[in-house]
What we know:
- It is a single chain.
- With 523 residues, the chain is mainly α.
- 59% of the residues lie in helices and 4% in strands.
- A four-stranded mixed β-sheet has the order 1-2-4-3. Strands 5-6 form a two-stranded antiparallel sheet.
Amino acid sequence: MRRTLLAMGTRRRLWVFWPLALACLAAAWYLVALGIHGLELARFPYQSDYGEGALLNEVHRLLSGQGIYHNDVAPPFIVGNYPPVYPALVAVLQALGLGKGFFAGRLLSGTAILTASVLAGLVVRRVAAGTEPRPGPAALWATALVAAGLMAAQIAIWRWGPLMRVDSLALAFTMAGLYRVASRPERAASAWPWFLLAVLTRQSEIDGLVASLWLLWPHARAQALRLLGLWALGLALAVGGLELGTHGQFLVHIVVYNANHWSLGSAFSAWMTWVFTAGGLPLLLLALGGLPVARRAPLGRLLTGFAGAAWLISVTVGKVGAAVNYFFPSIAAAAMLASLVALVPRRTASLLLAAYLVGIPPLNDAQGLAGQVARSLTAYHDLGTPGFRQLGWSAAKGGRDPAQQSLVALLARTPGPILCENMGALVLAGHQVYFQPFELTQAARDGNWNPAPLVRQAEQGAFPLVVLDFPLQTPAEWSTDRWPPALLEALDHRYQAAGVLGSYHLYVPRSVGPTGTAAAGAS
């Protein structure tokens, strides 16, 4: 019988094992480096992503006894994009003394994405233990480490994982559920709380549940039905309670306001960006190499089901405003399948894993081990990949962002309601978000929200300060995705430029003459 890796003779074992040992070292580095990156980003005091500001505002509303899912008829005009688990946990961390800014949320996200990576490796170890020929203990742990490292090495995970967003925590809950199912298939129904927490963190996070049902249905149908029933009951109770507590606004916010325009072209473009720009292609090729190994394992259906469900759900990336964070479960599934290549008893397979993780440019788009070491040692991080907004690591380490620092100070000195796309700066300055631009612009475009009251306020000059990421006279191409055209027209008529602060364009109301018409004043 053919013997698998680490169950061979000593000479043969060393000949095959050294590339896998190198892959394990690289994988361990990626996990450590991701942790360092997450801690450094957590220390950066200002907004790094548009979605962070909205979540920080939700946290502060919870801490002040206000709700997340506000009725959109009266101001403030805000949207609760996601179910409440993530902002509620961040609110608890802030109440325990972790500050009022982004630190607590980013710490939670960074911990969650590392936990998800480790749990992915542990799931793989359980799956690999059932393959034939039976791997030895060292091979199982090596495969688990490679799976975790493959996740941590992905540029999408680096860019989005430690941010104050819901994606990492939702994935961590899903991985916890999968690990429970893989560890005790005969008691798989006990994983329902993890899958419930996942969908109450991110409403589309059902791939782990689907994968578990896919595993159980052929041979343990009663266990599958019990898992589904407990999950559905918990979800019904949670949604029912949230609907009652928000007077019917919960589902309006997380469903209606999230139903942005979808197109196949946008989905295809996003897939191509991840596959060809963000290093997804070689990972997918490695995943195909691990697929035959998974199919030989009794628990292999858990991985293949998870991969299938994740890719089906990833079609939502075709919505306006979606980004590669929608691929988190797909990346996790691909990394888990790819790690099974370590169990192929050929030296070439281990060499491919080592080459990918160490980072030969044709395989990993210069996102290799040497590059990560150099960036960390020089305290500099530049994603350098088209389609990703860059964040200077050195700025994050020192907490330096002069434009945002000055903007927060200006907002803190300005009373009254303020329109500002940098919602994080508003919250840091002690204001509540008055208008959430992108989400409500999309809702208005689909006829789900009426911007007329806000437009009338702009026409009356009700906002002492308006902060845009573009000049009103020459608006950016994406401006109508984030600001209703009628509102932009009213601002252009009623407001005048008051200066530029970094990339932020400042506007104040024009003086109004005796006839009531707007008259230009001094800048």
